[in-house]
Design goal:
- This is DUF1273 family protein.
- Pfam families: YpsA.
- InterPro entries: YspA.
- It comes from Streptococcus minor.
- Helix 1 crosses helix 2, helix 1 packs across helix 6 and helix 4 crosses helix 5.
- 44% of the residues lie in helices and 19% in strands.
- The longest helix is centred in the N-terminal third of the chain and has 19 residues.
- The chain has 177 residues and is an alpha/beta fold.
- Strand 5, helix 5 and strand 6 form a beta-alpha-beta unit.
- It has a single domain, classed as 3-Layer(aba) Sandwich (Rossmann fold).
């Protein structure tokens, strides 16, 4: 697998409203472990949709890994050209990071009808070989539509981050302090 889609919970889905929230460092530790493993297994491209939360934290970790000498490429395929235009100043800075990835495209100029999301999700899956997913179908969000589509894909690799793994990592953090 050379190209992996990165999707998961938004920060608001997790009740995280501050960049200083301690849970972020635990999540980023899990992301770091996973991303190093993906790179070692041959992943060259990490594809984002431009959402805050899991995707943004993964992008931050990948930037750190690139600074450490890991070779990888990042891409952002936004659903719409006006994605994030109403975000506050802090989040605009984060949006700028997504817009500065190695490859940036917009699926549509602007929203016209709900079918665009289904087509966009299909496009993402057709152009990646797997997904790095932080999602639990017991804690549903709008991500359920993409998640259900992922489940129908034959030969599509799903690598996940879940709350159980995060609990294990948080226990390791507590023991190391």
């Amino acid at each position: 697998m050379e190209t992996i889609l990165v999707v998961g919970y938004k920060h608001t889905d997790l009740g995280i409203f501050s960049d200083k929230d301690q849970r972020i460092s635990i999540i980023k530790e899990a992301i770091r472990r996973d991303c190093i493993r993906f790179i070692e297994e041959g992943v060259k491209w990490f594809v984002f949709t431009g959402n805050l939360g899991f995707e943004y934290w993964t992008l931050e970790v990948l930037e750190e890994l690139m600074a450490e000498g890991y070779e990888l490429q990042t891409a952002t395929i936004f659903p719409f050209a006006n994605h994030g235009e109403h975000w506050n100043e802090v989040n605009q800075t984060k949006l700028a990071k997504f817009k500065s990835t190695n490859f940036v495209k917009y699926a549509y100029p602007h929203y016209q009808h709900p079918g665009q999301f289904k087509d966009y999700n299909r496009f993402l899956l057709e152009n990646t070989e797997g997904v790095y997913l932080f999602y639990d179908n017991e804690n549903e969000t709008n991500l359920k539509y993409l998640y259900n589509l992922i489940l129908t894909q034959v030969g599509y690799t799903v690598k996940g981050l879940n709350f159980d793994l995060l609990n294990e990592i948080s226990e390791d953090f507590i023991k190391s302090e």
